[in-house]
Design brief:
The chain is built from 2 helices and 8 strands; from the N terminus they run E-E-H-E-H-E-E-E-E-E. It is mainly beta. The strands form 2 sheets. It has a 5-stranded antiparallel beta sheet. Strands 6-7-8 form a 3-stranded antiparallel beta sheet, with no helix packed on it.
C-alpha cells in the first residue's frame, strides 16, 4: 500500500507499497491503525529496529510530498517485532528532509534517538516523533 502522511497540513512522509501479510486487509487500515489491527490478531509490537539514510526524491514521491524532484529526503527501513521476537512488519518510509528534526539524548549508560515530523522541536519536550532507537 502507498500511504502519504500529513504533518502540519503538508505531506511529510510516504509509506511505499508493502505487505501487511494475510492478517490485515489493506482497506481496513483506513478505519483502524496497522498496530491496532495487528494487536487484534495477537501480534502486539513490542520493539523495532530502524535504519535511516539520506536520499533524494524521485518524480512520484516528490509529487506525493509536494516537493521538487531531487529534494533531500530520509529513507527509513523499520522492522517491528512481536513480544516473542518474531519479525511482524517490515516497512520503508520516505520522509521529506525539510519536515524532520532528529534529536539525540545521550548519557553514559544509554542514548535515545527520536525524529519529529513537522513543527519545531523543543529540547526536553515530549514529542510525537518516531523513536529511531535506543542503545548503550
Amino acid at each position: 500500500m502507498h500511504r502519504p502522511r500529513i504533518s502540519d497540513r503538508e505531506p511529510s512522509q510516504v509509506l511505499p507499497p508493502g505487505r501487511a501479510g494475510p492478517v490485515i486487509e489493506a482497506e481496513n487500515l483506513g478505519h483502524r491503525g496497522l498496530y491496532t489491527s495487528l494487536a487484534g490478531h495477537e501480534l502486539t509490537i513490542t520493539r523495532a529496529h530502524e535504519t535511516i539514510r539520506p536520499t533524494t526524491l524521485g518524480p512520484h514521491d516528490a509529487r506525493d510530498l509536494a516537493r521538487p524532484q531531487s529534494s533531500p529526503a530520509l529513507l527509513s527501513h523499520r522492522i517491528s517485532f512481536s513480544k516473542t521476537g518474531t519479525p511482524v512488519v517490515g516497512d520503508h518510509a520516505l520522509l521529506a528532509a525539510d519536515s524532520v528534526v532528529i534529536s539525540v539524548s545521550r548519557s553514559v549508560e544509554r542514548h535515545e534517538v527520536q525524529y519529529i515530523l513537522g513543527g519545531a522541536f523543543q529540547p526536553g519536550s515530549a514529542s510525537p516523533g518516531r523513536s529511531a532507537g535506543k542503545g548503550g
